[in-house]
Amino acid sequence: MKRSRQNLKKNTDQRLVMISLDAVGQRDLAYLCTLPNFRRLWERAAKCAHVQSVYPSITYPAHVSIVTGKKPVHHRVINNTRLQPKRPDPDWLWQRRFVKGTTLYDEALKKGWKVAALLWPVTARSRITYNLPEIFANRPWQNQVMVSAYNGSAVYEMDLYRRFGHMIDGIRQPALDNFVHAGALYTIRRYNPQMMLIHFTDVDTNRHIYGVDHPKVTDALNRHDKRLGELMDALNETGNMDKTTVVILGDHCQYRTERVVYFNYLLKKAGFLKAKGDVITDYTYISKNCDGCTYIYENPKKKGSKRDFQKLTALLEKCKKNPVCGIDRIFTGKEAGELGADDRCVYLIEAKEPVFYLDACHTLTEPVEEMKKGKMRAVHGYLPDKPDYETFFMAFGYGIREGVEIPFMHLYDEGPTLAKIIGVTLPNADGRCFDEIVK
Description:
There is one protein chain. This protein is an alpha/beta fold. It has 2 domains: 2-255 and 386-437, Alkaline Phosphatase, subunit A; 258-375, Gyrase A, domain 2. The chain has 15 helices and 19 strands. It has helices at 2-7, 29-32, 36-44, 59-68, 72-75, 104-110, 144-151, 154-164, 175-190, 202-210, 215-238, 263-269, 306-320, 333-338, 414-422; strands at residues 15-21, 46-52, 115-118, 130-132, 195-200, 244-249, 255-256, 259-262, 273-276, 279-283, 285-289, 293-298, 327-332, 347-351, 355-358, 365-367, 378-379, 391-397, 409-410. A hairpin with a 2-residue loop joins strand 9 and strand 10. The chain is globular and about 70 Å long.
């Protein structure tokens, strides 16, 4: 009880709290602004309703771009998952070691700040003080508690699991976000760190399962509004709000889907890869999806000949003319890099929505309703400049000129802007600081 009372004393240190609402886009703002907590915060915030995500516009590259100020091609987290052809369920890019260069939280730690992160992507095995990383058991001999403890702050995590673990139901929502939210409230009141990174995936999960505009998504938005109100209450209890900066942001939006295309089926038919079922055993060229787009990679240990490359190029050009393949555009590796994606690919294929791509090779295409694995009624990953696909950014409190409206920004502009507020720099950033909103 004595320690609890001490922790409720007002902290006069500067604080930065970043709250990511995964897959919440510009399209959601009209409804969110009818909800009491979001509306109140939006009205006072410096904000941008038109934030362009990165390419590929998926969660891990996007969240790393937010904290580095770099495009994926430069921070090198160019997908959610790793290229592991012989694994039916590849590992995700969970660990900090995959990020090239520094991050906002690294720079905060150098200042002596205490940092907390709850399910913020690509932070596993980092030096974050209180870290519950987004990672899951991906081997038969692993369990979730063991994997989390090895990759995060073990004592802190065990405390969260002991107190709130009963809330979790795997990765199902809203149970997962309820656990994260309870952990965030406890962390604020118990540890009151100077930087917090909180990642909520309620909307993203429900859009994948039910579609872009399903009532389940509306329910998730309502839950987010309630969470925001409770987080603000906790921050008001524990710190000087004149020294606290709160940032609420999205990472991408989603598009509805009708069917999936498996490019590895075509590569198998053309003799470029071999497989047992959907497990690829050998390849010269392989497709590695990012939902709304897919990379084509060459095997570094089995490089194709000039004739193989010509055959691949001819195959893709033929596919582009075939509506079944759902191709919008085809980029070379160099063009992909210029767009911010992985410049080490041979080609990058952009889907024409409502098509998306996956990596299996048992057939060419399936309607979403007939899929047995990976069924999603909405996805992301597409070119970020497509219509009705932008996300948002809002910030208020310390260092922020409240009420300023920015007409347009890139996701990777957020890092340099926040870096200035906390008095650090992000070297070699692609984004720029929006001085218009910084005092």
